[in-house]
Design goal:
Helix content is 31%, strand content 17%. The protein is α/β, with parallel strands linked by helices. The protein is globular and about 65 Å long.
Length: 517
């Protein structure tokens, strides 16, 4: 920590998480002092750095934010917040400019104009990339460098937040596990920017450590979580032994690659949009084809051929490491968990239901994504809300009233016992019986505290939410309720509500947990 005295940091806003959302928030707060907690060395183990896709922003001559808004609303399947969607798509071009100002080197043509790509369910080429398929890596390189040279930002590496301290219903501190044991950071303003829940599944494209710990922090502090049942499965993860799985970006299909089976049949040809249909449609089609005993491949030979390595160098390297040359061979793929649309319920400033607690990035449910995230809207949401949260915090007085707190013994967190339960019950297709079994299996982990308690708490809330949604919408498909309800509602619940429902396994009016936005 280079001689930092933690007592000197009291009262500063604390940002938990050091991906795009967290670092952007810290940079936008400058020159006001702020603390960033990063459980790994800065820039490592953040999902943002793994992003192969780009940022969606209406910056082309034939594009405008209204078109981007329409595409987002269509993908969200009735559950987007139109006001939030309008806010984000309008702010997206400025967010790209902010990132460029922080040092991100976006891909540009000979004339200096941004190169814009096409991805599924977008009506225009509006995807801004960096280094081809390494957008996330380049963004994190630039933001880490910018944070390192900003004296108002104190980064505590190797510190993992374990609990939020509350006083009269408001946040008053963060208990973290550090290199020398548990520590308390007194803070009346805390931001959760911890990313994904992919590590709760066997097959995911996210870091294994992304197990919903930020959601658990908020839930245990009493915050409401929203739409936890909506988990996006990327249809084209490299099918192999590596975990986490390597992603084969949607941009490959945007360049014309097609999906085939072992007989060379293009089995999506009759689906509206074919390979560029919304991700939930493609993921379910791929999963169903696999379930019938087929193999599924992404074939880029005709569309890209020898240009593959130049256009997608990272994917090319991953494929070749697995013994596949994508310029001459089809790539074996299968769906894998990629993104969580649900999260901590926040308003347009990123405020949660708990005073003094904000959230942004994948850990937040802002209302942008609805039931199914539009490709490349996640990085831009993190960038836009990083500024929104910073401006909200800057306009909020610190009402911190420090009081003595007994520090708990830092226990390790381990999701390994939870993964098989979640993978079986909360996959591409769900059903009520399997979800009820999952609730019954998860409850003991929470009632007998141990390493799996926090992961199990979030998994339980996801399962209860999925049970409450007795319909199929967006990324949530119930085989026992295959139709879409005429009225779109959100699920919103606290951990206390989820536990009460779980203890009554009949989950009698489980649907009563669902209510309008």
């Amino acid at each position: 920590m280079n001689g930092i005295d933690l007592r000197d940091l009291g009262g500063r806003p604390v940002i938990v998480g050091a991906g795009l959302a967290g670092l952007a928030t810290a940079l936008h707060l400058s020159p006001a002092p702020v603390v960033v907690l990063s459980k790994a060395p800065l820039g490592q183990e953040a999902s943002s750095g793994w992003a192969q896709g780009g940022l969606a922003a209406a910056m082309g001559a034939d594009d405008d934010p209204e078109l981007h808004r329409a595409d987002t609303l269509a993908a969200g399947d009735g559950l987007c917040d139109p006001e939030i969607v309008g806010k984000v798509v309008s702010a997206a071009p400025r967010a790209v400019e902010d990132l460029a100002r922080f040092g991100v080197r976006f891909d540009r043509g000979p004339d200096g104009a941004l190169l814009l790509g096409l991805e599924a369910a977008h009506s225009r080429r509006r995807i801004v990339h960096a280094e081809g398929d390494a957008t996330g890596r380049e963004i994190m390189r630039a933001l880490v460098a910018a944070v390192r040279r900003t004296p108002s930002i104190t980064v505590l590496e190797g510190f993992e937040a374990r609990r939020l301290v509350t006083d009269d219903g408001a946040v008053s501190g963060v208990v973290a596990s550090g290199p020398s044991g548990p520590v308390l950071l007194a803070a009346g303003r805390v931001v959760v920017a911890t990313g994904s829940i992919g590590g709760l599944y066997d097959d995911a494209t996210t870091p294994l450590g992304s197990i919903g710990q930020g959601l658990a922090l908020a839930a245990r502090a009493g915050a409401a979580l929203r739409d936890l049942e909506f988990v996006q499965f990327h249809p084209t993860a490299l099918d192999g032994a590596n975990r986490p799985m390597r992603l084969v970006s949607e941009a490959v299909r945007g360049e014309g690659a097609i999906l085939i089976d072992e007989t060379d049949r293009r089995f999506l040809a009759g689906v509206p949009g074919a390979e560029l249909a919304p991700r939930d449609v493609v993921a379910r089609a791929v999963a169903a084809h696999l379930a019938q005993g087929h193999r599924v491949y992404l074939d880029a030979r005709g569309a890209l051929g020898g240009r593959f390595a130049r256009r997608f160098p990272g994917i090319d390297a991953s494929c070749k490491a697995a013994g596949i040359d994508p310029s001459r061979q089809p790539i074996p793929i299968r769906p894998a968990v990629h993104y969580h649309m649900g999260g901590i319920a926040v308003d347009g400033e990123g405020r949660s239901s708990v005073s003094g607690l904000w959230a942004c990035g994948e850990a937040a449910s802002t209302g942008l994504h609805g039931a199914n995230r539009l490709a490349s809207n996640s990085l831009i949401e993190a960038a836009v809300f990083g500024r929104c949260v910073a401006e909200s915090i800057a306009g909020t007085a610190d009402r911190l009233r420090p009081r003595p707190v007994s520090l708990p013994t830092a226990a390790r967190v381990d999701a390994s016992a939870v993964r098989p339960i979640v993978s079986r019950a909360l996959g591409v297709s769900r059903d009520g019986e399997t979800l009820r079994d999952a609730v019954a299996a998860l409850l003991p982990f929470i009632e007998c505290p141990g390493p799996a308690s926090d992961p199990a708490a979030i998994a339980l809330m996801m399962a209860v939410s999925a049970l409450a949604r007795e319909e199929s919408r967006g990324a949530h498909f119930r085989s026992d309720f295959p139709d879409r309800n005429s009225r779109a509602v959100h699920t919103r619940l606290t951990l206390e509500q989820a536990l009460a429902a779980a203890r009554n396994l009949a989950l009698e009016p489980a649907a009563s947990l669902a209510r309008s936005a």
